[in-house]
Design a protein that fits this description.
There is one protein chain. It is built from 16 helices and eight strands. The chain has about 350 residues and is of the alpha/beta class. Strands 1-2-3-4-5-6-7-8 form an eight-stranded parallel β-sheet. The protein binds zinc ion (ZN). The site of zinc ion has 5 residues, from strand 1.
């Protein structure tokens, strides 16, 4: 976890009201929560303290990362485990002044633990209501229908998601292997979701190239693109994204951790901003990648050398790119604009 010096701008960014649009709840648990669940289920070798647990999440390579992801999933076995974890995640987001989050969750990943999509969804919805009562944070859920299970299961999963419409599940996302399961396979699932009145987003241009983003935009009519990093390789695609104002859910630290880009400095986010794309900044799997939304904004500001104006634009983009209704957006914009009246004088 990076820690930043107290500078006027860093403190300002920490306090800035924020909207998070690309966060997977399964990658956003807190270490104290996971430690508690490990104890509940009889402990794990070598994990005595929370510090031991933090060390368990220092990966040697990508296979180790995947192994660690699966390892921690085994400690989520009962509805109350999900309820506790999501509540604590929302407490943490609130402490970063995240006012609203559209969070992915992948309830079908836990079928092997003997827990149904429905009972996980009910538990997560309880957590988000309780967090709203206690901290005022708003949360909506987007169910990730993993590409790897194929188009038929994808369409079936959309039916299951539709059962929770109006209760806080607002849409579907498309994750999983971009290379093996291109967007075009999921046309039916996305059309169905649209008929149900669900929002539709897709990861694209993270593992695969610009063609994968074209597929999400053209075949699926995705309302936002998760990552979209490889759009940089295709000027026509950049034009399309700008003209249609399709937001990109950019996740800087995630892209470095998974090797999509080599460094922050070589990330195309700066080009996207200068091309006038609707860029938003997000964390993807904050606990797994050791990042926070505050740190991501600070990195954008300090190391991508975004100006205060660009910082403000990116923050406001997240409000506009959300699936809140007009009134919800207006309220957040008012809060955001009020806060920006206190911005430091830029003396850098
Ligand atoms: Zn993601």
């Amino acid at each position: 976890m990076t820690s930043h010096h107290h500078t006027p701008w860093n403190d300002f960014i920490k306090g800035m009201p924020k909207v998070e649009l690309h966060l997977h709840l399964e990658g956003a648990f807190t270490f104290p929560t996971l430690h508690q669940l490990i104890q509940k289920y009889g402990g794990a070798p070598e994990i005595r303290t929370i510090q031991d647990l933090r060390h368990r999440f220092a990966y040697s390579d990508f296979p180790h990362f995947i192994e660690t992801w699966k390892w921690k999933n085994q400690f989520f076995r009962a509805p109350e485990d999900f309820e506790l974890s999501v509540y604590e995640t929302l407490r943490d987001l609130h402490s970063q002044n995240v006012a609203y989050v559209e969070a992915f969750y992948s309830p079908w990943d836990f079928e092997g633990n003997g827990i149904s999509m429905q009972s996980i969804t009910h538990a997560v919805l309880r957590a988000k209501r309780k967090a709203h009562d206690d901290f005022g944070i708003q949360c909506a859920l987007i169910a990730d229908i993993n590409r790897d299970f194929g188009p038929e299961r994808g369409a079936e999963r959309v039916d299951e998601v539709a059962g929770f419409r109006g209760q806080g599940v607002i849409g579907i996302g498309l994750g999983g292997s971009e290379h093996q399961y291109p967007a075009e396979l999921f046309v039916e699932a996305f059309a169905k979701a649209k008929q149900f009145g669900l929002h539709r987003v897709a990861h694209a241009g993270e593992a695969a190239g610009a063609g994968s983003i074209w597929g999400a935009v053209r075949a699926l009519e995705a309302e936002r693109i998760g990552h979209g990093t490889r759009a940089i390789d295709d000027p026509m695609l950049i034009d399309e994204l700008r003209t249609r104002r399709i937001p990109l859910e950019v996740c800087l630290t995630s892209n470095i951790c998974t090797g999509v880009v080599r460094s922050l400095e070589s990330h195309p986010v700066k080009d996207f901003l200068h091309a006038g794309l609707v860029v938003t900044i997000n964390t993807d799997d904050p606990t797994m990648f050791g990042c926070t939304l505050t740190d991501e904004y600070i990195a954008l500001f300090e190391r991508v050398a975004a100006s205060p104006e660009l910082l403000r634009t990116v923050g406001a983009n997240a409000i506009d790119s959300s699936f809140l209704d007009e009134r919800g957006k207006r309220e957040l914009h008012e809060q955001f604009d009020r806060y920006w009246k206190r911005a430091p004088h830029d003396a850098r």
